[in-house]
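Quick one: structure tokens for this chain, please?
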Amino acid sequence: MAQFKIALIVGSNRRESVNRKLALALARLGSPGFDFKFAQIDDLPLYNQDDEGNLPASVVRFKSEIAGADGVIFVTPEHNRSIPAVLKNAIDWGGRPWGKNSWTGKVAAVTGTSPGAIGSALAQQHLRQILGAQGVLLMGGETYITFKEGLIDSSGMVADESTRGFLKSFVDQFAALVARFATPALVAA
């Protein structure tokens, strides 16, 4: 059976991040044939072009995780009406050094949550602009989730039936896009 490797990138380094909880819930709603793995970004040093000749080990690991993924789901909060610095830093490292852009041709989807009524809409808009410039194949549509206490239960599942159905549709649409454009790694049955 074909297995698609999906990298989950959470745009927050907060331990109790609601976006990390949402990313885990998305993985649990996942599609058959999807292998979800979190790509760590909080250990990446601040991007510095001077370091491109001898990439730090955490950057090599991160770029390898992205290169090995068939698709990427970005789940981000909104910081000051844009994406968090930790996420922008990861995108910068993934796109460098020149000629070794790990993002080009990757199939990706963007979502996020916040307690506010527009659920990270402006951050997602900025993220889409940045990813488009990196050559990422972005899934269309908008997925803004207002995070409320109890939205995700203690087992990591989306408790609200309507939101669960909406997010399941999001994951299924992403699965169809990945299946169409990505070449999966074959694994033994």
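Helices lie at 18-29, 57-67, 85-94, 121-133, 161-181.
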